[in-house]
């Protein structure tokens, strides 16, 4: 059963009517094709109109939609011969970050992603995409493996942030994130990031210090969640909508600021409404990004990546 967001209620009501009419037709031999087509056309118009003017807070809701495809969905759809690799070789396996060797359109790559899970069981297993230090240390180990074998790194970002629990802090959460950023900035192989849902705080940046950063149209990417920002600034998480506006978390804002390199359009109504079209759009954008980077000398890739992040924020400020 489809899940609808608060601002989609009028659309949900129409789609409910369409479902009822189809059920009526199946049971009574009544031909309601024209009425269904008329209502479906109205739904399509409402979807286009609604999604053309989403507020930042509404985009946060879309990015968090429970039916939105996650990292493992993209890996299954876009990568062949995926061989998952586990463990940080120091403490434990962290299921919030998944990764391994694979082929992308014939090219050997290392793919890493933050996985949220789709139901209660998998969300608990993957800790809702919030990685502990061992997850980031696993990511470091796999990126070093990619550099050793001279293969590109692809990362899929989708997390509300790194796990803030006591155990994670005791095991050096901030150090693990900082090491991941440092290591990724220093890679001598191509690195491409796709922000597929939420890009939250340092937990996202740890896997996003890439040569090219792509972002889905209705994804969000920010130094802190709107709720966290509102709690700090106004001592009231209910001010999250205002915080989302101020944080400039949308793909359009971030592209204007030079934080991301390209916006990947989503199907009307969001990635969850047409996953196949979303996978194709992401695959095509990823393929073009990798093609520009593969073959570039390693020290040049590293220098360009570091320069990119040192200059970040200058665009659009003058």
Key phrases:
318 residues, 2-enoyl-CoA Hydratase, Chain A, domain 1, 2 domains, globular
Notes on the structure:
- The chain is an alpha/beta fold.
- Helix content is 49%, strand content 15%.
- It folds into 2 domains: 8-53; 60-311, Alpha-Beta Complex (2-enoyl-CoA Hydratase, Chain A, domain 1), CATH 3.90.226.10.
- It has helices at 9-28, 33-51, 56-63, 71-78, 120-125, 133-148, 166-170, 173-185, 201-205, 226-233, 240-247, 251-257, 275-293, 298-311; strands spanning 80-84, 97-104, 107-114, 153-159, 191-200, 212-216, 220-222, 262-264.
- Strands 1, 2, 3, 4, 5, 6, 7 and 8 form an 8-stranded mixed β-sheet that branches.
- Helix 1 (9-28) runs antiparallel to helix 2, helix 6 (133-148) runs parallel beside helix 8 (173-185) and helix 10 (226-233) crosses helix 11 (240-247).
- It starts with 8 loop residues before the first helix and ends in a 7-residue tail after the last helix.
- CATH topology call of the largest domain: 2-enoyl-CoA Hydratase, Chain A, domain 1
Kindly report how far apart the N and C termini lie: 48 Å
Fourth CATH level, the homologous superfamily of the largest domain: 2-enoyl-CoA Hydratase, Chain A, domain 1
How large, in whole angstroms, is the Cα Rg? 21 Å
Q: Supply the number of structural domains.
A: 2
Number of strands: 8
The CATH architecture term of the largest domain is: Alpha-Beta Complex
Order of helices and strands: HHHHEEEHHEHHEHEEHHHEHH
Instruction: Note the overall shape.
Output: globular
Query: What percentage of residues falls in helices of 4 or more residues?
Result: 40-55%
User: Which CATH top level class of the largest domain fits?
Assistant: Alpha Beta
Q: What is the tally of helical segments? A: 14
What oligomeric arrangement do these chains adopt? single chain
User: Average pLDDT across residues?
Assistant: 92
Tell me the structural class: alpha/beta
Strand content: 15-25%
**Uncertain ranges:** none
Largest sheet: 8 strands, mixed
């Amino acid at each position: 059963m489809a899940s609808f967001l608060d601002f989609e209620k009028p659309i949900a009501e129409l789609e409910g009517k369409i479902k009822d009419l189809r059920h009526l037709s199946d049971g009574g031999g009544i031909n309601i094709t024209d009425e269904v087509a008329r209502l479906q056309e109205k739904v399509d118009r409402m979807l286009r109109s609604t999604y053309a003017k989403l507020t930042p807070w509404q985009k946060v809701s879309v990015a968090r939609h429970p039916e939105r495809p996650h990292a493992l969905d993209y890996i299954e759809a876009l990568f062949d011969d995926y061989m998952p690799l586990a463990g940080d070789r120091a403490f434990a396996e962290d299921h919030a970050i998944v990764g391994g060797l694979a082929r992308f359109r014939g090219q050997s790559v290392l793919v890493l992603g933050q996985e949220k899970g789709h139901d209660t069981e998998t969300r608990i297993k993957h800790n809702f995409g919030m990685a502990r230090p061992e997850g980031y240390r696993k990511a470091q180990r796999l990126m070093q493996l990619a550099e050793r074998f001279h293969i590109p790194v692809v990362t899929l970002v989708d997390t509300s942030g790194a796990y803030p629990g006591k155990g994670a802090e005791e095991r050096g959460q901030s150090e693990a994130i900082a090491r991941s950023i440092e290591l990724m900035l220093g890679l001598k192989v191509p690195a491409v990031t796709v922000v597929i849902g939420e890009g939250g705080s340092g937990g996202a940046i740890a896997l996003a210090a890439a040569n090219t950063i792509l972002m889905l149209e209705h994804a969000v990417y920010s130094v802190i969640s709107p709720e966290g920002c509102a709690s700090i600034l106004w001592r009231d998480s209910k001010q999250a909508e205002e915080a989302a506006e101020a944080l400039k978390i949308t793909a359009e804002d971030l592209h204007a600021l030079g934080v991301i390199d390209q916006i990947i359009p989503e199907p009307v109504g969001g990635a969850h409404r047409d996953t196949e079209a979303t996978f194709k759009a992401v695959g095509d954008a990823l393929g073009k990004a990798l093609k520009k980077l593969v073959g570039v000398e390693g020290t040049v890739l590293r220098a360009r990546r570091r320069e990119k992040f040192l200059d970040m924020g200058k665009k659009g400020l003058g």
